[in-house]
# Entry
Amino acid sequence: MVTGAPALAAHTDAELTSLLALLTSMRSPVRSVAVGHARDGASRATAQAFIRAWEALDRDVLTVVDWPEEAASWLRPAQRLTAQAPDAWVLAGAPPGVAHLLRRLRRSLGWDPGRTFGFASLADPRMVEFVGVDALDGLRGASADGGTWEIGRN
# Structure
């Protein structure tokens, strides 16, 4: 069981700009995303800021899904995130809750960690411990200073 979610810091402007750049520079154009976030204030605000910025680029948000840090089942949020076959997934939340969701998503048809993006909170070494590197291979995102990160086998 993954527990111990720390309080999250608000996203930075540099982080949001970097994440948008990652998504818009993909080899295959990303037009549509599914956005998932934890229910804490920082995660909600981060997701909403991303949605506003993404839609300002005339791109589509197919669905917005939230989840509690602890849940009896992660099936419903996983199904909602993958139901409309987005080009990419964008996640905001603390590593423990996101780890639960990712463990469920890895069993979902159509989900690909290489098309999944996160904010700085997910650039946490515990993510590999929580979920396993195979389920995260290719997951990438933005750091608070505007840099980027990626989880991979190497």
